[in-house]
Amino acid sequence: MAGSLLVGAAGLVTLGQVTAPVSRQVRTGPPTTLDLGDIRIHAIRTGRVAVKRAHRVLAGPDVTRFGSIVLDPRWTDWLPVTCFLVEHPETTVMIDAGETARTAEPGYFDCDLGTRLVYDRLLRFDVHSDDESGPQLDRLGVDPANVDIVAMTHLHGDHTGGLHHFPNARFLASRTELERPTVGALRCRWPDFFTPSPVDYDDGPFGAFPKSRALTEDKAVRLVPTPGHTYGHQSVLIRGAEDGAERWVLVGGDATFDLQQVRSRTVAGICDDPTAARKTVAHIADQLAAYPTVYAPAHDPHGAERLADSGTAES
Q1: Does domain 30-308 have CATH number 3.90.1580.10?
Q2: d(CA 245, CA 297)
């Protein structure tokens, strides 16, 4: 795709000689919070991303999905880049690290040729320094240096950009994610202290998911495998109570782009394994049908508000 892209205060995108407005509907507001008894969950929007429309929704046969993304001239509206903070009586857990304002620096994506082409041509970011996860945790009264665990849903750059804010954390990623590298992982930007431990799912079923890995002694916060977007993608499933009633939260990372994809049983165009992605969508749909669950993926424009409103899948 020829031409450069510029995002200005007026929200204009310039591609070659073609200029089109980009929606400003998604803004980086303050974190939104849900209290589940003694568990507190914060949704933290660390800037915005726009992708090709075929990136968001699978178009055509599985085998042509990447070509469809590259050739698609259309862009989505701005989507949030959301990470989450879980404050549990036993521990403090970040789910992903969010994006960094360094995405605006020339050469930031130049880890290798393939990675540079993906980021330069297929994604657009709008991130300010105060959007990053560290400053936002400071505003919540949480010192990022005191975060105990950072659980990575996967290792794409928009989920690892804020790693430098968490120098003392224990990092977790699925074993498959670590053993099967994926395009989009900006390894040249990872801080030296980022040495994630591999996760195996040996704590049995949890909710509608057949396998899990507990992060807390009370087993209320668990990692569950949700492969598809990447081969080793995982999500975080939390069980708590609200006003005496059981309530669940599923932080979905990029398992789907939004709740609507679960409702329609569709998958994103950008996925390493479409077959696994369809099975993951089915597991998520089963979770939402069987348990009162707030579903909050990373790029859902309504995910943070749904969390704040304690909205379930019917919201």
Answers
A1: no
A2: 23
